[in-house]
Here is the input.
Amino acid sequence: MIIDGCPHCNAATIIRNIMMSQGTEPGRLGLDYKALKFFAGGETLLADLCTSCGTVVRFHVKNTDRKWMTRD
Ligand SMILES: [Zn+2]
Here is the structure.
């Protein structure tokens, strides 16, 4: 889905694909996935931000084909 304007303030001032990951730093924000049975890493979380009102309008990742770590 392509967002043309902010759903909150309707401004078209949305910056896309802002990287949320802090790389190897502890406290990295991202979505964890596993390879084989073990924790493998995190998919960088990307955010689309409206610079007019500060609303984060979307969170997404580039690669969805992962074995996601879920709480089940
Ligand atoms: Zn906005």
